[in-house]
Amino acid sequence: MGWLRNWGALTAIFLLAAFFRFDGLRWDDGIYPHPDERYMTMLSASLHGDKLALTDTDETKRVAHQALCERRYPASAGVGPWLEY
Fold first, then answer.
1. How far apart, in whole angstroms, are the C-alpha atoms of residue 42 and residue 52?
2. Residues whose CB falls within 8 Å of the CB of residue 13, separated by 6 or more in sequence, listed in order
3. In 3-state terms, the chain is what percent helix, strand and coil (to 5)?
4. pLDDT truncated to tens, each residue of the chain (85 aa)?
5. Nearest to 80 by CA among 3, 17, 72
């Protein structure tokens, strides 16, 4: 009967561990991200830089950016090594 008691204790430990592991997975009722993800989002939003614009309306900026890319990556006509599509 000792093995039955050991298996029972082990099963109880696993059930308790599963309860604590899977309890409270829905942070903020599924509306907001996990607190760690929210922190990283707020941190990255606080880093100031030029805004990413896929279609820049200012022609001079677009031409200057294209010229910079062509200087950096002359072999591929301005397309970087990881952004080839």
1. 17
2. none
3. 65, 0, 35
4. 688 999 999 999 999 999 988 887 776 676 777 788 888 888 887 776 666 566 667 788 878 888 887 888 777 766 655 654 4
5. 72
Domain locations in the chain as residue ranges: 1-49, 50-80
The pTM score is 0.35
The type of residue at 3 is W
Between vectors from CA 62 to CA 57 and to CA 65, what angle results, nearest 5°? 150
28 burial (CB, 10 Å; 0-12 / 13-18 / 19+) is: exposed
Distance of CA 69 to the CA centre of its chain: 26
**Measured distance CA(16)–CA(21) in Å, rounded:** 9
Residue type present at position 42? M
